[in-house]
Amino acid sequence: MIGAIFHLVRGAHVGFVLAREGGLAFVDPSQLPPHLRLALKVGRMLERPGLGDGAARLSVALTRLGPSYVKFGQFLATRPDIVGMAAAIDLERLQDRVPPFPQGQAIRVVETALGRPLREVFATFSESIAAASIAQVHKATVIEPDGTQRALAVKVMRPGVRERFQRDLQAMRFMARVVHTLSPQAERLRPREVVEILARSVMMEMDFRLEAAAMSELAQNTAGDTDFRVPKPAWELTARDVLTSEWIEGTRLHDHATLIAAGHDPKALGRTVIQSFLRQAIRDGFFHADMHPGNLFVDADGRLTAVDFGIMGRLGHKERRFLAEILLGFILRDYKRVAQVHFEAGYVPAHHSVDDFAQAIRAIGEPIHQRRADEISMAKVLTLLFDVTALFDMSTRTELVMLQKTMVVVEGVARSLDPQLDMWTGAEPVVRAWIARNLGPVGRLESAGRAALTVADVVADVPDLSQRLKRILVRLDEAGTGDAQRLEAFARQEKRRALWSTLALWGIAIGALVMAFR
Fold first, then answer.
1. Residues in the chain with pLDDT < 70?
2. Model's pTM, two decimal places?
3. Would you say 452 and 517 are in contact if contact means Cβ atoms under 8 Å apart?
4. Residues 127-186: pLDDT tens digits?
5. Which of 53, 238, 405, 509 could form a Cys-Cys staple with 455, CB 3.0–4.6 A?
6. Does an H or E element contain 127, and which?
7. Which stretches of 116-265 are DSSP H helices?
């Protein structure tokens, strides 16, 4: 009871701050029942005069509420399926910048995490050079065995931040339950699910070992790319609360004047931004999902360099094929193929017509070919595509939503470097290369290999099924007369189920082999 009262007070405080700073302007009253529309109207009366629009309002409100709510706003920026694309774009501008915590505290966190005094670990350790709600970054150096110095970036967890997040998340869970109780219609926005996804995301982001693993995986995937690089983590100097990695010397991507003065070509960099992202998403299935200009640098060799790997996206083989074929279908104006890809992936229910869906896709694609390439937004096309699929009962795919949102940001970064950038020409080489590799002879052989492994798994399961039947028969022998009859019937049923399951699996495996060589 005391906990509920505490959460209710916290919720009232959050509501007051949002109302006062104009954060309730994002709420659509038409989606609310009458009693909540009245509450919203009263809340809007509390707004301070002279407020800005969009993220200018939310930025102040969420910053006042604390780091947990700033992170919540950034999380919602990746979920336009929940807040809408306009609000998501506004929230993308929300800056996670807070005053740094004292140097002494940072040193204690490092020493505790690494288990050694700072002087035994680093030769130098600077004051904070950047601070956010979860952590801050310091520049440090270590002495190599040959006597040279190596520069490192050290990310240090903010003291007490986990406890603060846990406390605020409990309040958010309580408020989500209240929203559901007061307005069951609001469940379409899945407030309770959103809070739980946020909780998992933030807790993973608060273990820097996981971020180092993401950095390492992305570095391995892009090792052969000459125009993109990822700093390497220093595993021996990384723990849950400390992430140490290679120091990046470069120019931030939003500093156009310095880029040009250094001799870099903004147009080439614009192409690199879009192609690097698409290679990560389509080729590797693992992409940096926070590619705003503050996280992108250009080194002295002109290579695009990314930092901050707390938010990553992952796509399976099916999703990558889906994306590649959609982009190529729009490039080639093959709308029937774009529609078929949606049905083959199972994203649109089979009771709909492929031809009707292709007609809807054509309504999106044909206007593209009536305009100059630099006037076409790839991100807008994908947004329209997802809007159309909603009419055909396409369920929300979280991984595709994150991809869509990241593409909006990436396209904005690329166009800021080259306003006339032809996104489709830039994307085509990456898309064609993936399709040639994965849908050509080599890809079919690999599909056949996967089908063969499926067959092997089926064969390997046969002994286990036999053992299960044997155990049932043993129990049958040990049971009484009445139980024996029931167990005998159960054994026959299990035997038939096992037989048909095995035959079905064999059929699927053989069908996969046949399809691989079609």
1. 1-4, 6-8, 11, 23, 25-28, 30-33, 35-36, 50-59, 78-90, 92-97, 179-191, 369-376, 378-379, 382-383, 386, 389-390, 395-399, 439-467, 469-470, 472-518
2. 0.72
3. no
4. 999 888 889 999 999 999 888 999 999 999 999 888 888 888 887 787 777 766 666 555
5. 509
6. strand 124-131
7. 118-121, 161-182, 191-205, 208-221, 256-261
Rounded to whole angstroms, the maximal C-alpha distance in the chain is: 92
Instruction: Read off the tokens for 483.
Output: 């139980």
Which helix (H) or strand (E) element contains residue 113?
A: helix 103-114
Question: Which residues have CB under 8 Å from 412's CB, separation 6+?
Answer: 379
> What is the three-state SS of 19-80?
HHCCHHHHCCHHHCCHHHHHHHHHHHCCCCCCCCCCHHHHHHHHHHHCHHHHHHHHHHHCCH
**Whether the Cβ atoms of residue 152 and residue 139 lie closer than 8 Å to each other:** yes
Q: Name the residue ranges covered by the structural domains of the chain.
A: 2-97+163-204, 250-437, 442-516
Per the annotation, the verdict on 299 as an active-site residue is no
- State the DSSP string of 450-470: HHHHHHHHHHHHHHHHHHHHH
Residue 127 confidence (pLDDT): 96
Give the residue ranges of DSSP H helices in 183-312: 191-205, 208-221, 256-261, 266-278
pLDDT attached to residue 333:
84
Distance between CA atoms of 275 and 298, rounded to whole angstroms? 15
Let me know: does 423 contact 274? Beta carbons within 8 Å. Answer: yes
Residue 275 makes CB contacts below 8 A (sequence gap 6+) with 227, 426, 427, 429, 430
Phi (first) and psi of residue 251, to 5 degrees: -105, 130
Return the pLDDT at 109: 96
Q: Choosing from 168, 290, 308, 418, which is the catalytic residue?
A: 290
Nearest to 135 by CA among 151, 119, 158: 158
With beta carbons less than 8 A apart as the criterion, state whether 289 and 406 touch. Answer: yes
